[in-house]
Amino acid sequence: MIRFITVLLFLVSLALFYSVYISPEFFPYVGLITLTIPLLLLINGLFFILLLLARRKLAIVPLLAIIIGWKFIGITYQFPKKADDQEGLSVLSYNVALFAYDKNGDWRENNKNVIKWLQENPSDIKCFQEFYQDPTTPSRNTTKLLGNELGYEYSYQIIEGKPRSRSYGMAIFSRYPIINEGKVFDTQRNNGVIFADIKVDKDTIRIYNAHLESMSIESENLNNLDGIKENYRQTLRKLKRGQVTRASQLGILEEHMRNSPYVNILVGDFNDMPYSYTYFNLRKNMKNAFEEAGSGFGFTYNKVLFFLRIDNIFYDEPLIIQQFKTHKEVDYSDHYPISAVFTWVKPLMKPQEINSED
User: Fold this and answer.
1) What pLDDT is attached to residue 227?
2) Does residue 88 contact residue 343 with C-beta atoms inside 8 Å?
3) CATH superfamily of 91-357
4) What is the DSSP letter of 137?
5) Where are the beta strands (DSSP E) in the chain?
6) Is 178 helix (H, G, I), strand (E, B) or coil?
7) Where along the chain do the CATH 3.60.10.10 domains lie?
8) Is the distance from CB of 350 to CB of 263 less than 8 angstroms?
9) What parts of the chain have a pLDDT lower than 70?
10) Is residue 131 exposed (0-12), middle (13-18) or buried (19+ Cβ within 10 Å)?
């Protein structure tokens, strides 16, 4: 019986480890199943210890499972690293939740300090998801407060509303010149991907700001466990639909990034865990800032499901990351801001350009 359970656990672990490469478009529930990977790794660890203490050769089976799934440990937890104080290009990503306004311009909660914090934040590039703008009211004219008054150029792509009245969308602010900008796609609701080409001295970097399909679960239902239990069927349907939609959006984004003439940095709210098809597809060709320079678990969600890391910074390998931080002290939104600092060897070239020169 022990041998049977151990082997079965090993086979289930292998199946789940490789399921992250299966698109939810073909198997809609695969994204939900992969959420159990950390639990499986823990169980394998317990089996290994128990079998080792019992001096059973069978202990090699859960040990092998842990070795094969080691990459999942790295994307879950990073041991603290000594931060490099070297200066470079600093990038901030923050889902600001409409700056605590709702779509009618009314306060949802008293979070007036968010604008002040962003004004004082020294990042060279600031990317915002769920950006709110109202040029008719000085305290809500966020492009002016965060852009014009601070000397930042900005690209604001409206998803809903009009430029001369209340609107919301996504924005990229830059201390350096923006020479090109655009929208990869939007859902005409609250999600999408935008980009800006930013001239940094003699180099140009393309910044992608992403807000992939939300799970469309009312935040009130996530504030307590009772709300989650009462709505679990509806929640599962929304989770499944979100997984499928994000897989489709990922294809559009990846094609756009492949055609980029510049080195890419991709930031945003991906609404997906690190054990997802979206995360692992991006991870195949790009580095993840948390994995390379983060510490701890790096959770970015500021609700009852606090164990979620759904905000990320990915970057092309010619860039060298010096620092990564999750700003847990900033709790004005349902997400925490994340930031990274990059350096590079000049001139900055895409990997294929480097290979062609070789």
Assistant:
1) 57
2) yes
3) Endonuclease/exonuclease/phosphatase (3.60.10.10)
4) S
5) 89-95, 125-133, 153-161, 167-174, 178-186, 192-200, 203-211, 263-269, 287-288, 311-315, 319-326, 338-344
6) strand
7) 91-357
8) yes
9) 83-85, 103-105, 107-111, 216-233, 235, 351-358
10) buried
Q: What are 84-135's pLDDT values in tens digits?
A: 667 899 999 999 999 987 766 676 665 678 999 999 999 999 999 999 999 9
What's the Cα-to-Cα distance from 254 to each of 32, 206, 243, 257, 285, rounded to whole Å?
23, 14, 16, 5, 10
Backbone torsion region of residue 236, taken as left when φ is above 0, otherwise alpha when ψ lies between -120 and 50, otherwise beta: alpha
Neighbours of 63 (CB within 10 A): 16
Residue 196: what pLDDT? 98
Contacts of 54 (CB under 8 A, 6+ apart): none
8 A C-beta contact, residue 82 and residue 322: no
Length of the chain equals 358
- Mean pLDDT taken over the chain: 90
